Amino acid sequence: MPDFLVEIGLEEVPARMIAAAEAELGRRVQDLLARERLLAPAATVTTYSTPRRLAVLAEGVLASQADTEEQLTGPSWKVAFKDGAPTPAAQAFARKAGVAVEALEKVTNAKGEYVGATVKRQGRAAAELLAAELPKEVLALYWAKNMYWRAGKPERFVRPVRWVVALLDAAIVPLEIAGIAAGNTSRGHRILHGDSAVVIDQPRNYSKTLRGAAVVVDVAERRHIIRKALDAATRTVPGARWREDEPLVVTVVHLTEWPSVILGNFDSEYLALPEEVLVTVMRDHQKYFAVEDANGKLAPHFLAVLNTQADEAGAAIIRHGNARVLTARFKDARFFWDFDQKTPLADRVESLKHVTFQKELGSYHWKTEENLRVVRSLAATVKAAGVSLDTTALDKATELAKTDLTAELVKEFTELQGVIGGLYARAQGLGERVAVAIYDQYTPASMEDPIPVSIEGQLLGLADRIQTIVAMFGIGSAPTGSKDPFALRRAANAIVKILAESGLPLTLADVVAASGVKAENREQVAAFLRERLHFYLKDVRNFAYDVVNAVLAADANDVRDCIARAEALTVARESADFAAISASFKRIKNILRQAEEKGFALQPAFGTTLAPEAQLLAAAAAVLAPEVAHLRQQRAYSEALVRIATLRPVVDAFFDKVMVLDPDEKIRGAHLALIDEVLRGFSGIADFSEIVTA
Amino acid sequence: MSSTKSASIAKPAPLTFQELLFRLQGFWAARGCVLQQPYDVEVGAGTMAPETFLRVLGPKPYRVGYAQPSRRPADGRYGENPNRLFKHTQFQLILKPPPVNVQELYLQSLEAMGIDLAQHDLKFEEDNWEWPAGGAWGVGWQVMLDGLEITQFTYFQQCGGLDLDPICAELTYGLERIAAFLQDVDSIYDIVWARDPDTGAVVTYGDVRLAEELQFSVYNFEAADVDKLWQHFNLYEAEGQALLAQAGTLLADENAAATEKKRFPLLAAYELALKCSHLFNILDARGAISVTERVGIIGRIRALAVGVAKSYAVQQAVS
User: Fold this and answer.
1) In a 10 Å sphere around its CB, with 0-12 CB exposed, 13-18 middle and 19+ buried, how is residue B214 labelled?
2) pLDDT of A577 over the 90 cut
3) Mutation for A interface: B3, B4, B151, most A CBs within 10 A
4) Of B5, B103, B119, the CB nearest to A310
5) Tens digits of residue pLDDT in A312-329
6) Mind listing the pLDDT tens digit for each residue in B261-275?
């Protein structure tokens, strides 16, 4: 069985796009082979990529499709042959089936005698099929940004295609992609190998052959090489460790074909700059790994991942060049830092009038005043609940939170807004509480980030975000579908996360109320936050979707309480009694809905004697309801759910013996009133009817 | 690590600033490029010179290179910052259409400048480029040499709001950066601009340009008269718009003679757009443009630049 290889040679593909494209190409090749019946049962499909190539190796494909035989049935024999001679009907069928009239056969089945034809189809050769189909698959790859390069603009792709290798064993598959005819020659590393052709003799030698041309085509292997090389380079500094940074590892893996690592140094005088600035320059601007000493403090070294293997002299040049660039950037940062100190944050509040927050809303000065109003309202609620906080510091932090937008250092490092404000506040002696709150105002930026450490930081973060959401909703800029240009979902996610993970005595409703939202937007904003709470419970906390639905149906306001109820319910649902109760509650809901549709009234059972099972249920519920309510109040949810599960025997007996929708109107009304009371009495923790039972 | 300095210094004397330019020009001239002189109206980047902005439009192949002094008033630092300039020099190259081996040619041009690629780390990292006021954008890379961005490499996709066909490759070499890197100096002002071959006496970048950096920083940040700048802006814009209006009528007139259409001064209209762009940059450096005004003014410049591009494409098609 032959092996198949395709390699698309490209000019450097953006690092952020490579992994997804490699996987997609692998999937497309595999699907194509499967669809065309060219994939042997034991076949393996392996994908490779570097910045300059995407490749797929399929080992064990079929040289051609298997021949097929198909039995077609046509008109009845009587219609097709009159006196042994074929009629036009027989001829038409033969034509359609692609056989001679003489080859038609008589087929007898339960309905009678018919004309049949055996159609043999010869399988097509893999090379022919791949040549026809593969180019379409390649050109259909998704890219976040495409370009044209050929005159007449026949196709778009991420970057120009410069060569194509397509082989079935040693034979070239005669396909063409973007005007490039496939061959058996690949290209090696630009510098280490140069321009000479790299001939692939067999698909399975692909990886090995390219290694000989200074290209490691296996992504996992490059990753391993880089991590090992980072370790090795760091070991030259006693006690040092490189700072783990998985996203950066991924980036450099996709920027290199033949990676190596150098450790370089910078003058330790720059360690006086804040670590945040140093790390941002190294990681975000230069793609260097930071190095820390044995105490976790930043050390005056950096690690650069190279796409080459230099000799000692070359390594010295490269090390020096990288250090030179880094030093220049640090120098700039220090210049901006010193320059910014000439205008303290307090003197920058006025200039926020010239920084637009949003065209239709106003400047950051306006935004600051709005934030102050919201944060004071939140603080009042929190204080009323007996939590102590430093309102002076909170006011100051809110007032100055956005002033770093006018600082030169933030213009240079936009990703450090907030952080730089916090550092400046500290440097300018505004007090630790003020500094920390400003510093943390944009955390959590993602669901992986921690929440602000201080209560003031948490309140500032809440106020800033709910103000933005409410203001944007107010001008009709709520997110729709996949469009969320102002990242309001992220802002709302952060609100939920802060409420979930802080000790703040605030509910979603408190936050909405503090925002001063206009009446006409109130429900829309509340629903938006509820939807984010749903997302948080399900996708961040990983509660089962039915647990989330059940919990939120009971109440979706107090975030931490929702989590506690979801936790209790997740445990409780595992018991058989509880599953049965859930099923019964679903039944109750259905019956009540039917009753409502039919216009049946709910009437308490005065003067009506009910079946013993109904009486037992009423009595049990009457005893249990206040007990459960008490437990709920004490947030003893697990205990409450265990108690509710004890209802199972009486509930089961009731549904076994009692016809709820009794023909007698009075009895029926009494039954309905009873189950309605049970439903309402025990749905305060969660709506159990939402629980999906096996 | 103490050997790093000596390792790079041990190389033969690096090229002077002007030699770098000679090498680049010689390299590309030998590959069929027209060598143009810098455009003599203030521009913020080599892209804005008509040799790029207008020549990339339409079907005619063209290859051109020129060293374009590029003025960015807000980047001035009174000659005090060793890495930032009000006016820097871009060697701008347009290859229309791009040859299939454009990247390989580019690498050879680096070697022509004395960069031994075997001794360096080179990466093409994604960096897409756009000039909103010119309705121009493309995709490409920043070319990183030992962590330093030395070239912006762009495949132009649109210019003047028009789709390009054929597209072109634009290579923009940052000459000061490359020179400082190769000469291993910490300040741009220490770059050796020229060296007397007989005496070995050197003239530095600072000798040639420091006074200009200082004085233009003073002008751009302090002395420029905001009211007059606005008047200039409005005058240039009005004249540009008037020309565009005439061009629109003439080029749409089926009875007008081709010679009349061909002689219509769209190139002059484009210079007026460039004037407006530069005045905007000075006003911006002067702090005279609020954030709210900003978008509107960029829109006015765009109307001029894109208007010229559209008419120019029509004019070029006149036979």
Assistant:
1) middle
2) no
3) B4
4) B119
5) 999 999 999 999 999 999
6) 999 999 999 999 999
